[in-house]
């Protein structure tokens, strides 16, 4: 059993047997094997960056959610479960499902139909070159920072549990990711994300079941935690008397609208998976297929965090990473898993880190090559040159990720760090997209100025919070309010500037503005493949879960 000494946690250590090492070794071999198998298919830049737009929707759908199963989902969600309770499920439900349905039904036809290679490329078509350039640079910064989170988390977990040197762990992770991306490009990343999705489920589902059985089921867990607020989604949100310290307006608008739609609808990391689909129908189904596992992930990512918190109530109150909330899931695995199952669980953790890092690196190399290098540095090179550049910038991106890995150390919870980044980069971008797609009067310079000012406003708010000039509640609550404010600033500034600048002619807006785009009905003969049917089922499950855990 786990014991406590004051606020210093006596942490468990991992004792792996040969079966555990064998499972981890098989994972490494299979992952690299996928890269080698796909190597010969990388004949063009589109093969390397977009998988030749040839993948079936079940693969892109699982990769769509798999790319979101990095350190943020596994360590971050478990950490915040110990810190905020079951309210953390908001990030899976209201913070994901409506946005995933929206991007499938309304935005994917624009993305896929325009045949753009990236989100910045779409912004150029709708707005102007300046908007594309600013978003490409800011997105590049975001992906490198978030890639570093996964690398840092992987290194620290294995450093704490096994005593391996931190720097060695970081460079081993970097070399492994670099190998399979260089071999198979986005296809390698997507197929590995699909594999990692199943590994994560197999590694975390037993943790939930064993953990709940250990504490006496759901009722026993509630009794041990002894904090009713930790087991409800909406109670206490009429005011700020809840673990998040933010009311329902902040949750619904800040998280459910701005942060959620800003990530799922505009972040190229996830959009890129849908763009790799074999046709427009498969691209639309991609986020819808991903929505179903997303609905049930709270039970395998959040519940173990609550279980370990019930056994280690001082977690997060001591000094150092060993005592941080980020270790909730790894400690739960070491506490409950026997040999063999422990190897599977640690492989699932490893897979989540690799998935998150690889997803960011493949998005980064695409945006750099198409939206920065080809646009501003070398415009008319042969396709083989851009394929070569994609491989070179993959190496550069991974090296930069190593440099940013240690930035996550100053945050007690990885999730706090990630949400701060999303509130800065994605929140204002959502306002730009919505105005551009649904208001034809939005101009190129309106979009550019609004995006720049909105981003600057979010950075300013974050800096003022860091220096205690303002306070907007907990770290999670602050990110929600900051995102809403940044979105509002961008929205207003874009409208004002658009009213005094010249819009694009109507002929250039077809296929880019909703009211000016002919409605194309994607014909599906099988009822359960129809986007509206899938969206309706997902929405019904979403509503039921919110009622049950109200």
The low-confidence parts are 1-9
- Mean pLDDT across residues: 80
Largest sheet: 2 strands, antiparallel
Q: Which word captures the global form?
A: globular
Helix- and strand-based class? mainly alpha
User: What is the CA–CA distance across the termini?
Assistant: 33 Å
Number of helical runs? Answer: 22
Number of extended strands: 2
Series of H and E elements? EEHHHHHHHHHHHHHHHHHHHHHH
Word description of this protein:
This protein is an all-alpha fold. It contains 22 helices and 2 strands. Strands 1-2 form a two-stranded antiparallel sheet. It is globular.
List keywords for this structure.
globular, mainly alpha, 70% helix, disordered N terminus
Write a concise synopsis of the structure shown.
By secondary structure, this protein is mainly alpha-helical.
Topology:
Blueprint: E1 4-5, E2 8-9, H1 18-38, H2 45-50, H3 57-66, H4 72-84, H5 97-113, H6 119-126, H7 129-162, H8 166-215, H9 217-225, H10 248-266, H11 268-275, H12 280-296, H13 298-301, H14 303-311, H15 328-336, H16 341-377, H17 383-404, H18 414-425, H19 427-438, H20 444-466, H21 475-499, H22 531-548
């Amino acid at each position: 059993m786990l014991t406590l000494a004051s606020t210093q946690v006596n942490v468990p250590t991992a004792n792996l047997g040969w079966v555990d090492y064998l499972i981890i070794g098989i994972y490494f071999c299979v992952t690299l094997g996928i890269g080698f198998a796909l190597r010969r298919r990388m004949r063009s830049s589109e093969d390397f960056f977009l998988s030749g737009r040839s993948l079936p929707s079940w693969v892109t759908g699982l990769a769509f959610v798999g790319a979101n199963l990095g350190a943020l989902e596994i360590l971050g969600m478990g950490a915040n479960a110990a810190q905020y309770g079951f309210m953390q499920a908001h990030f899976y439900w209201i913070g994901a499902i409506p946005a995933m349905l929206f991007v499938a039904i309304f935005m994917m036809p624009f993305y896929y139909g325009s045949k753009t290679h990236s989100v910045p490329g779409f912004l150029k078509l709708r707005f102007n070159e300046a908007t594309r350039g600013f978003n490409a640079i800011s997105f590049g910064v975001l992906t490198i920072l978030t890639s570093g989170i996964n690398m840092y988390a992987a290194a620290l977990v294995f450093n704490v549990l096994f005593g391996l040197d931190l720097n060695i762990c970081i460079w081993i992770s970097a070399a492994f990711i670099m190998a399979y991306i260089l071999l198979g490009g986005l296809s390698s990343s997507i197929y590995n994300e699909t594999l990692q999705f199943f590994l994560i489920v197999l590694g975390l589902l037993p943790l939930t079941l064993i953990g709940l059985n250990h504490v006496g089921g759901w009722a026993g867990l509630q009794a041990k935690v002894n904090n009713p607020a930790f087991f409800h989604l909406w109670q206490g949100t009429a005011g700020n008397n809840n673990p998040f310290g933010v009311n329902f307006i902040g949750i619904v608008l800040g998280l459910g609208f701005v942060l959620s739609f800003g990530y799922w609808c505009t972040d190229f990391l996830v959009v890129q998976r849908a763009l790799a689909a074999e046709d427009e129908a498969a691209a639309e189904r991609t986020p819808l297929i991903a929505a179903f596992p997303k609905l049930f992930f709270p039970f395998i990512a959040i519940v173990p965090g609550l279980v370990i918190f019930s056994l280690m109530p001082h977690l997060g109150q001591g000094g150092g990473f060993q005592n941080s909330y980020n270790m909730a899931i790894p400690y739960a695995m070491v506490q409950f898993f026997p040999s063999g199952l422990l190897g599977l669980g640690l492989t699932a953790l490893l897979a989540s880190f690799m998935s998150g890092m690889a997803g960011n690196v493949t998005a980064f190399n695409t945006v750099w090559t198409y939206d920065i290098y080809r646009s501003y540095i070398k415009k008319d090179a042969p396709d083989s040159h851009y394929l070569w550049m994609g491989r070179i910038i993959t190496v550069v991106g991974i090296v930069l990720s190593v440099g940013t890995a240690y930035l996550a150390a100053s945050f007690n919870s990885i999730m706090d760090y990630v949400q701060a980044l999303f509130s800065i980069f994605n929140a204002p971008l959502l306002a730009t997209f919505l105005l551009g797609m649904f208001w034809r009067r939005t101009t190129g310079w309106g979009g550019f100025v609004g995006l720049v000012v909105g981003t600057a406003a979010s950075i300013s708010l974050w800096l003022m919070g860091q220096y205690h000039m303002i306070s907007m509640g907990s770290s999670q609550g602050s990110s929600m309010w900051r995102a809403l404010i940044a979105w509002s600033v961008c929205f207003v500034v874009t409208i004002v500037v658009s009213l005094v600048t010249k819009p694009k002619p109507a002929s250039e807006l077809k296929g880019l503005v909703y009211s000016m785009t002919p409605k194309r009905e994607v014909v599906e003969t099988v009822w359960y493949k129809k986007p509206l049917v899938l969206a309706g089922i997902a929405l019904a499950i979403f509503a039921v879960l919110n009622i049950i855990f109200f």
